[in-house]
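Quarterly update from the structural biology core.
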Amino acid sequence: MKTLIAYSTRHGCTEKFVKELENVAAGEVDIINLKKSYNIDLNKYETVIIGGSIHAGSIQKEVKRFCSDNLDVLREKKVGLFICCMEQADKAAKQLREEFPSELLNHAEAAEIFGGEFNFEKMNFIERFIVKRVAGVDKSVSKFNKESFANFVREMKLSKK
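Predicted structure, tokenized:
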């Protein structure tokens, strides 16, 4: 089974989760950052996992474009979708639903919210200011939803075990 994990990240949170997925996935795994590489031959993959982070209310444009440009091919694959965000419960679920095409969400084997982080060391002044004002957070914080991650791995049947 050959798996592609296509993602985009702003401050590195999504990349951390991508590496965790790579560590648990059986078979051959290719990882592609959509900011660095875009023309991907999806025909050589059985499984495609797509993820991104929510930044200022939206997922990265590279992720949206990848999904819309490859929708027909993706509907023929085993697909998993995830986002990284700091919102919880209904707000996070709404962001997941709004950031991926409904056709792709309906087709996906798994769609999860892995949590997120505010990494002040990687943010510029304006980003830190906005996070402080909007989220009321004044230092780096990370929230990893282990249960959502485990559900995703199980639903996608990724585990080496």
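The beta strands are 2-7, 28-33, 47-55, 58-59, 78-84, 110-113, 115-118, 141-144.
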